[in-house]
Structure formats: structure tokens, C-alpha cells
């Protein structure tokens, strides 16, 4: 098998790697923002529940949650390996993203909130119009870390047999006795993806920057 | 008959085991400018926060026009729409231009259309002399300009009363004048105002009434002439001397007695 064929074989897995990321990252984003708001504004009980969620999910190795979801839960609700993997990565990521957004919301500061409330805005209006637009901007740099992590962690779904980049690299490496080449190609693909994501987020950060702030 | 806009009756506020406000009663008539003075930590800011319900008072009642706003079941957001607040540290919304800072209240809270709110906001910016800065972000404005935008932001809600919490305390000395000028203009235009400040020149020239507070109680209140020249309490005289010496020395030229023994 020529180098080109190996490369193409592995590259075919990019679709799945990207798909897993595109499920896990936005899912973590939506849940993360939601849970961070619950953690901060949710009152004693809900805030505490969100705190427990964050601690537990950040305390689990992603692969363990993935196995739990796939081998134990997926059996009863008929979840494909792809979805079991993507969802568990999304759950783990939501816990990290929750902390990213919590930090961002807190660093916007109570003063902004007070000024908005003094104007007569409700709490929801304040969060929507004043807190989040600033917090989301502040969250971009740490979020770009998390995005890179999720792109790379998507390789974990190989453990339950999803044919993404790493799985294909391992397979073709073993079959052609060229593991170094295969894994090098895989590494370059992951690096390329992370580079693209980081670069895109850097552009987003620059475009949304508040002048002189 | 003058119309009472704000009536505070026997308001107390306790933090932990310190009584920050003790049985405060105060009335503000329509068009009046009332200046609250007193040493720091005496509850002046807390009183302002109780008035617009950012803090809850532990006892007593507050009326805005004829509505008891401290009563149970009152919608706080609704009350705050009618009370303008200006903070010591400006607190402009950092992600919005000066224009959007002024527009956001009318649009989001009052449900005004964008075109109408734009017109209103430009008019308010005109009032504070900052039309040419409408497109600037807070980070591109000086402290004095920020505070004037903050005043315009509060005015855009057409409040019944404006509260100022040490509006010039965070400003460089040379920027204080422009903010005081705007406030003086508002006062002359008949805006009802409660102002916490250490600017004695402003207090003396603009206030209809000065309220001297210390340790959570109102020590003395009256027209500026009375407090400055015929205070009933030694403590009032002492405070006014000290504060005048610290802040508005230039305002006191020619009418100082013992305080001006300087070579």
C-alpha cells in the first residue's frame, strides 16, 4: 500500500472526527452556558446541583463515561457507538465549559449587573443584554483551549469501534507494518484540525473585541 | 403646594450587627435638589440603594409619588424604571457605544422602537454635551465623559427622580467640573435630585436642602446657608470645615474664618 493510499485511508476518518467534535462541542457549549448561569443565579438548590455535576463530570476520565454510556446504557436505549461517544464527550465538555463561562460571567463583575438592574432591567434581561455579550467575549481564549481538547478527545471514540482518524491509523498501520507513518499522518491531521479551530477562534476574538477595553 | 416625590419614613438597615441606617426620615419635593453629606461609612450610599431597592431596608417605608415601594408585592424592576441612578464608578456597559448605552434602557425596558430611542438618546447626549462622542465605546472616553454618558443613560428613562452616588469621587480633579456643570444644569431645569457628594461648592450653590448624616442618623438638615453659616450642632460645623479644607478650598475664598489660617 503506497503512502498516498495510507493517507487517503486515514483521511477518510476526518469526517467522523469532525462530526464527533461538531456534536460534542456545541452540546457542551449550550449546556455549559446554561449550567454556569444556573450555578451563579440558580439559587441554593440548583446552584449546588450544578456544582456537583461539574465536580463529578470533571472528575471522570472521558473514556470511563464513554464506556458507561456505551456498554451499560446504550444497550437499553439503542445508542450507536457514534452517538454514545459524541454524547459522553459533550457531557464531559459541558462541565469544563460551565467553569469557563462561570469564570467569564464572574469577571464581568457585579457592577455591570447593578447598573442594568438600576435601569429597570429584569434579571433575565440583564443576563441577556449586559452580562452574556461581555462574558462570551471574555470566554473565547479559554474556550479555544477547550475546543482543542475536544477535537483531540474525539479520538477516544476509537475505543468503541468508531472508524475515525485514530482507529483507521491503527488499523492501516498494523496491516501495512508502517505504524510510524500511519500515526504520524494521524498526528498531522489532528494538529491541522486544532490549528484551524484555534486560528478561527483567534479571528473571532479579534473581530468581536470591544474597542479600547 | 409642592408635590412630594420621595418620602422616606423611619427606614433602618442592618448589616450583621451594625445598624447602618437608624430610623431615617426624609422628604424630597418635586424639583428639589437634596445633597447628602457626611463622613464615609455613614450610610449615605446605602440610603440611595434602599431608595431604588438595590438594597432592602429592614424596617420603615419609602414612597415614590404615592406608591409605597417598600410594600410587599411591588415589582422592583418597575419601580427602578422611574428612579435614575448614577454611580461613583460610572458603570457604563463596556460592550456598548455611548449611544447604545443610552438607548438600551428605553429599547429593552420601555419597549421603545429603535428609531424613537435613537432620537431620545441623541437628545439626552446633547443635554450632557456629548453628541460628538455617540459612537465611542466607554474605553475611549475620559472619566468625565463616561460619567456624563451615565447621566444621559439614566435620563433617557425619564425618571421621576435622579440619585447620584458620589458622582465625582472617582474623577481626576480637572474632570470634576464638567460633571458638576451637567448636574447643576439638571437641577436648574427642575429635575428632582438626591446627591451624595463631598463637593461642598456644589452643595452650597445648587442644593435646596443639605442633609448631614453621621453614623446612620440624620444629624441636621436645612438650607445650605443654615448648615454652612449657622449650624445647630458643633459636629456639623466641624465636618464642614474639615471637608471644605480637603475638597473645595477654592470655593470658600473670602468667606472663611478659622479654617483659612494658612500662610
Blueprint of the fold:
The complex is a heterodimer of chains A (213) and B (263).
Chain A: H1 3-11, H2 14-41, H3 43-59, H4 62-77, H5 81-108, H6 110-118, H7 123-153, H8 165-176, H9 179-207
Helix pairs in contact in A: 1-8, 1-9, 2-3, 2-5, 3-5, 4-5, 5-7, 6-7, 7-9, 8-9
Chain B: E1 4-15, E2 18-29, E3 33-37, H1 44-51, E4 59-64, E5 67-68, H2 76-80, E6 83-86, H3 98-109, H4 114-127, H5 143-155, E7 161-165, H6 173-188, E8 193-196, H7 200-206, E9 209-214, E10 217-222, H8 224-229, H9 234-246
Parallel strand pairs in B: 3-8, 3-9, 6-7, 7-8
Antiparallel strand pairs in B: 1-2, 1-4, 4-5, 9-10
Helix pairs in contact in B: 3-4, 3-5, 4-5, 5-6
Structural summary, described in words:
- The complex is a heterodimer of chains A (213) and B (263).
- Chain A has nine helices and no strands.
- Chain A is mostly helical.
- Chain A has helices at residues 3-11, 14-41, 43-59, 62-77, 81-108, 110-118, 123-153, 165-176, 179-207.
- Chain B is an alpha/beta fold and 263 residues long.
- Chain B has helices spanning 44-51, 76-80, 98-109, 114-127, 143-155, 173-188, 200-206, 224-229, 234-246, and strands at 4-15, 18-29, 33-37, 59-64, 67-68, 83-86, 161-165, 193-196, 209-214, 217-222.
- In chain B, α5 runs parallel beside α6.
- Chain B starts with a strand and ends in a 17-residue tail after the last helix.
- The relative contact order of chain B is 0.15.
- The interface between A and B is medium-sized, with 21 and 27 residues.
Amino acid at each position: 500500500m503506497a503512502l498516498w493510499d495510507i493517507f487517503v485511508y486515514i483521511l477518510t476518518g476526518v469526517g467522523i472526527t469532525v462530526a464527533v467534535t461538531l456534536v460534542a462541542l456545541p452540546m457542551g457549549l449550550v449546556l455549559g452556558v446554561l449550567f454556569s448561569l444556573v450555578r451563579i443565579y440558580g439559587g441554593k438548590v440548583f446552584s449546588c446541583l450544578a456544582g456537583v455535576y461539574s465536580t463529578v463530570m470533571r472528575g471522570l476520565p472521558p473514556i470511563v463515561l464513554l464506556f458507561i454510556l456505551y456498554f451499560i446504557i446504550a444497550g437499553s436505549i439503542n445508542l450507536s457507538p457514534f452517538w454514545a461517544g459524541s454524547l459522553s464527550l459533550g457531557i464531559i465538555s459541558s462541565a469544563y465549559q460551565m467553569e469557563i463561562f462561570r469564570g467569564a460571567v464572574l469577571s464581568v463583575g457585579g457592577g455591570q449587573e447593578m447598573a442594568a438592574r438600576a435601569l429597570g432591567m429584569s434579571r433575565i434581561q440583564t443576563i441577556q443584554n449586559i452580562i452574556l455579550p461581555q462574558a462570551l467575549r471574555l470566554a473565547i481564549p479559554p474556550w479555544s483551549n477547550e475546543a482543542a481538547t475536544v477535537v483531540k478527545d474525539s479520538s477516544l471514540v476509537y475505543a468503541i469501534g468508531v472508524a475515525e482518524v485514530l482507529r483507521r491509523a491503527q488499523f492501516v498501520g498494523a496491516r501495512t507494518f508502517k505504524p510510524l507513518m500511519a500515526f504520524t499522518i494521524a498526528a498531522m491531521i489532528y494538529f491541522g484540525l486544532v490549528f484551524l479551530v484555534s486560528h478561527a477562534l483567534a479571528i473571532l476574538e479579534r473581530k468581536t473585541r470591544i474597542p479600547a477595553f | 403646594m409642592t408635590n412630594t416625590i420621595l418620602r422616606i419614613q423611619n427606614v433602618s438597615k442592618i448589616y450583621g450587627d451594625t445598624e447602618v441606617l437608624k430610623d431615617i426620615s426624609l422628604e424630597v419635593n418635586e424639583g428639589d435638589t437634596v445633597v447628602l453629606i457626611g463622613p464615609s461609612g455613614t450610610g449615605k450610599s446605602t440610603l440611595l440603594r434602599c431608595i431604588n431597592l438595590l438594597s432592602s431596608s429592614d424596617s420603615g417605608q419609602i414612597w415614590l409619588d404615592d406608591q409605597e415601594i417598600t410594600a410587599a408585592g411591588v415589582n422592583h424592576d418597575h419601580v427602578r424604571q422611574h428612579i435614575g441612578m448614577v454611580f461613583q464608578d460610572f458603570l457604563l456597559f463596556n460592550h456598548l457605544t455611548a449611544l447604545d448605552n443610552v438607548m438600551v434602557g428605553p429599547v429593552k425596558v420601555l419597549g421603545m422602537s429603535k428609531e424613537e430611542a435613537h432620537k431620545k438618546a441623541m437628545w439626552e447626549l446633547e443635554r450632557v454635551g456629548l453628541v460628538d462622542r455617540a459612537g465611542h465605546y466607554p474605553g475611549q472616553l475620559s472619566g468625565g465623559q463616561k460619567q456624563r454618558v451615565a447621566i444621559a443613560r439614566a435620563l433617557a428613562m425619564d425618571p421621576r427622580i435622579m440619585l447620584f452616588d458620589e458622582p465625582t469621587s472617582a474623577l481626576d480633579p480637572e474632570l470634576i467640573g464638567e460633571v458638576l456643570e451637567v448636574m447643576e444644569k439638571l437641577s436648574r431645569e427642575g429635575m428632582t435630585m438626591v446627591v451624595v457628594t463631598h463637593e461642598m461648592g456644589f452643595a452650597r450653590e445648587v442644593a435646596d436642602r443639605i442633609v448631614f448624616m453621621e453614623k446612620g442618623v440624620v444629624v441636621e438638615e436645612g438650607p445650605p446657608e443654615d448648615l454652612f453659616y449657622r449650624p445647630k450642632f458643633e459636629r456639623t460645623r466641624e465636618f464642614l470645615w474639615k471637608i471644605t479644607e480637603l475638597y473645595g478650598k477654592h470655593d470658600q475664598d473670602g468667606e472663611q474664618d478659622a479654617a483659612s489660617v494658612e500662610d
